[in-house]
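Anyone able to model this chain together with 1-deoxynojirimycin?
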Amino acid sequence: MKYRYALLALLFLCCKPNPQSQEPTETEIQTAVDNLLREMSLSEKIGQMSQYSQPTIASGPERNPQKSDMYHDMIREGKIGSFLWTWTSEITRELQEIAVNESRLGIPLLFAVDIIHGYKTIFPIPLGEAASWDLDAIEQSARIAAIEATAAGIHWTFAPMVDIARDSRWGRIAEGAGEDPYLGSEIARARVKGFQGNSLYEKNTMLACAKHMAAYGAAEGGRDYNTTDMSDRVLREIYLPPFKAAIDAGVATIMSAFNELNGIPATGNRYLLTEILRQEWGFDGLVVSDWTSINEMVIHGAAADDAEAAELAMLAGVDMDMMGDLYQSHLHHLVQSGRISETQIDQSVRHILTLKHKLGLFKDPFRYCDAEREQHVVFHPDHLLAARDIAAKSIVLLKNRTRTLPLEPRMAKIAVIGPLADNHKELNGTWAATGEADRSVTLLEGITSAVSKETEVLYEKGCDILSDDRSGIDRAVQLAQQADAIVLNVGESADMSGEAKSRADLDLPGVQLDLVKALAATQKPLVVVLTNGRALAIPEVDELADAILETWFLGTQTGHAISDVLFGKVNPSGKLPVTFPRHVGQIPLYYNHKNTGRPDLGNGDYTSKYLDIDNEPLYPFGFGLSYTTFEYADLKLDKQTLPMKDTLNITVKIRNSGNRKGRETVQLYIRDVAARAIGRPVKELKRFAQIDLAPGEEKIVGFSLNAKDFSFYRHDNRFAPEPGLIKIMVGGNSKNVLETTCTLLSGV
Ligand code: NOJ
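re: yes, here you go
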């Protein structure tokens, strides 16, 4: 019987036309790698493990600035395996020609760039895209980024950034998917699939990199690069799941983090990079350090000198040294002195060469740099359409008093005000160096093209993003007084979030709040459009504005996407992937917190609360309004008691009770009420589903949960469920939910 199936499978494989017929098999690759390794000198092996940035571009402190000519010589000598921050088909071709034609073994170079949310067509920043909760759209955005970037000769993106962040002061929260490990894992998977496609051998797919392993997002005080310290349980339940999800989705590479975790810098952390990553999870791809993070182990105080730092990174499992030049300078000696074995070096080189084979670089080193394709695909109209679609889906409607929105596109006069309303420079957000700011559509441009010909669009900046100059506020007020409605675009500049961009305050910078106040006093309908890379604490804006749209940084199609929502062409459906606090003092603030022994139930003293502010967030995780309304009813379970090996089926009815078609993200949370010796979070997101409903329409949404979904790191450190009472909660955000319970039975 077995033979029959094997034969059928063989026949199927033989007969199936294989569009990738040139693609080498695993065995072919391993044989080729072994053969090459036998020919390589130690110096050439170390070269493969060394990555440098183009001399003109730095995304960190430059330790060893090299001149181009010097790089050329190093390539010839086989001393460079990979470049970062190197792109355009022309430049990559030039360097590749030297590697292939002028070095002894002709090993092709690997080119990497941080293609975080688009190459030329820039999509919303990752935190913004996460607010769409639309996994297909997120995958598509990564797919398009790969299509454009690969044509420019780029083989490898340092994305997705899968760090969970519960602290919006940390500027890099903009680069991830927010605070939740489940949503973060789903998005990690979608992004990896988008970048890597079905096969790395295709010319328009690229290596993805899940970063930064690990717990970088938990930097103390929200200050970038700062120390993290946490229990293994929190590490494994909150910070590691998105990495595991990325690995399950086949991510080819992992980047080690800058931070120290529980006393050990992540880049020298064998527990993380070998025991968990390779031994527990079976990862067999490539691990790259972060920019000079090997060198920084000396500054951390964890290595006596550069040589020891290189040794520690090798022992931890870092295959490639990004920009540190330490493998280049010290590995030779470390091997000769027996501190590192050549077998270990071979293992790292094997990871690198295998990926070069998988990309097809040994068959054709120039297959990615294709000037004609680059010209054809960048800013392709289909890409712009997709960018507009996901940008609109990323917008979250935070407030809509008396249906201020949508606006009437035929109104006589609209006032567009604010330092971000016509500011090309800021639209693309952090990590968009390959983009072209001038090609991005501002809000003013978007509104002008969306309103009727008769509508007069008035514009005034009002104030700067950061300065304390109030001189423009009066002009803005005068202008607003003539208009039927005000659209006010305030927030942060693009360089206020991203790497090394932590903030101590989460309010509107500069005098922007004064501008909001002055315009609110006109009594004209006031729509505040927020542009920012993190959750902000804006209770006054919430009070003063009639409507608020959170738009993050939306990229190339910013103005069109916001206008689509402002004028009702698109009904907003975004939901916050991160909790918005009332006050920075509440941070860290996240929905899946613990209950404490004295939760604040509004019942007096000696409870876990602040004297001066509420515990409640301004807007909870998962929150987002629509131009229609959704009613939840009939939350049902197919069983009240659940044997551990069984599946729990859950249904809930959702009705569109408004008068517009809309999309709702239905969220399922659980709470393990008594988990035996361990306190569990008050809510944990376990599933979500997106549904489109016409006015009056209702749908039953079904979810299934099994033992794995109820599992956690128990008191005995086993990842398993505990019998007992479980709350099941479903709603349109993490706060307002329908609730029921079931009992998980012990044993089978
Ligand atoms: C440092 C950043 O931490 C990392 O995310 C990025 O990929 C590298 N620089 C390369 O630009």
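The chain has three domains: 42-361, 393-586, 630-744.
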